[in-house]
Amino acid sequence: MASPSDPPLFSSYQLGPMTLKNRVVMAPMTRCRSTLPGEIPNALNATYYAQRSTAGLIISEATHINPGGLGYHAMPGIYSDAQRDGWKLVTDAVHEAGSLIFAQLFHAGRATVPELLPEGMGPVGPSPIPIPNGERHTPQGKKPMPTPHELTPEEIEQLVVDHRHAAEIAKAAGFDGVQLHGANGFIINDFLKDASNQRTDAYGGTLEKRMRFPMAVLDQLIDVFGPERVGIRLSPLGEHNGIRDSDILGHFTEIFQALDAKNLGHLEVLGAPWTGEKNDQVNAAARANFSNTLIFNHAYDAQRAHDELAANACDLISFGKPYIANPDLPERLRLGHPLNELADPYTLYNVDAGERGYTDYPTMDAANA
Asked: Which of 26, 136, 148, 260 has fewest C-beta within 10 Å?
């Protein structure tokens, strides 16, 4: 347990009923190492997450909630019994290593291609608006993202049911909670932002209507796990997968307020490095309008993380890419030790790379042995 004199990044933190050993969060990062067919988590995944259990909290890579939600080749799912059992290997390993882990629930929405999906399926979205110049890597090479099918109200209701089922699978697999992926131009983000949601029914038009589907999903997740074990990841300023919005600060201030009204356990806000002052404004709006645990993710180093926490700008800091190559990241940050560099990019998102660039990065102790 950290002492009161420790820098804030390395002090313990109470997330609802859960005590985190530090304020370092391992951010969700797709690594494409599940077993095929079936997108099933495996023993190699368990090793990867156990190595990185130096974080106070791990948020898993994106896990698709149904077969049509797959966005990347060999990303894991969380809807079948086999996937449940595979994830149990991971959660057991993380708990034994002394950390906590949430499952990130995901649906690709319009950001996928038919070549990745079961026969007869394709991308879906709130409106038939394709991602401008969108492409996705597949085993057959790069493929363009077509115009998505506009979801019917009945199909939207089924997606709510599918998210609940995924949460039930996550709970049975031993996850400590769930985080809804509401960022980066995937299905939840598609509904929230007005450039991709131009519906005129109960699920589009006003912000209140655009929030209807995401909030219905959160209600189901809360019903399964309780509010303190449910969170959401948002990227208000992000434009990944062609996502735009006409009034980012105004709209997301209202979204933060709606999340707060649900007593949601945590909110993770992704910054955008090129936005400067706008990023600070969005972060300040999140802090002012959301009462529970606030997580920032914005290419942090140790000093910036300490400064944000000391100023009470947020409660936890999540780290993405640095955790790929540095399983002992908190200790390296604490000691000011140099970070390992990323290996060949081929190994980042490639199931065929196996353990290379995945579980073979050395800790400080191993490197100095």
From this structure: 260
